[in-house]
């Protein structure tokens, strides 16, 4: 099994510990993860803004970077979801379309890969804290990632799970949306944090650092002592504590 890590921009530049947690968890199961250094942005900001020519340029780099692996895993439903848009970008280019479809078929969000490909739902973690979960829009709606994170958390010893009210409401980030419509975005994340506070959770966990960065920023602005973690971080920390 040749597995490559698609780290994504935010995890690479701001949250490298997320990638480290993924790699170290997978190493426990004998999965050696490769890291193609030519990888770059998935092209989502350009794609969503209507700059499809520029999006194709970055998409071609991603396709080249991961052409020789069996699986691509990423700590982001959003960026993995963007790969699922690649066939649309290349629908008039038969050669690139075939490559785009191939990449789409082997690209997985991290919890998808753990549960669907490796068949792992219990990593042997212990995490004695009260936890709530934000299901990011793209992972849930584009990729259908719903049961996998819940299965993984349900097997963590000591973890007290508290459902997040209106959990599937968007956090308000949405990439360029947060810049172009900042007032609406700010109102949405404020509402999201209000719901996080309702749970009285110690930890907010999710699968997408863009959403967690947005929610975490609002939590810090309001001096709320809620720890924000990617699920890969929680699982790896829990394994070390076990």
TrEMBL record:
One annotated Gene Ontology cellular component of this protein: cytosol
Note the InterPro entries from the entry.
Cys_rich_dom (IPR004017)
User: Which GO molecular function entries does the Swiss-Prot or TrEMBL record give?
Assistant: oxidoreductase activity
Domain Cysteine-rich, first and last residues per copy: 3-83, 131-215
Give one Pfam hit by family name: CCG
Q: Which PANTHER family match?
A: LACTATE UTILIZATION PROTEIN A, UNCHARACTERIZED PROTEIN YKGE
Its name, as the record gives it, is (Fe-S)-binding protein
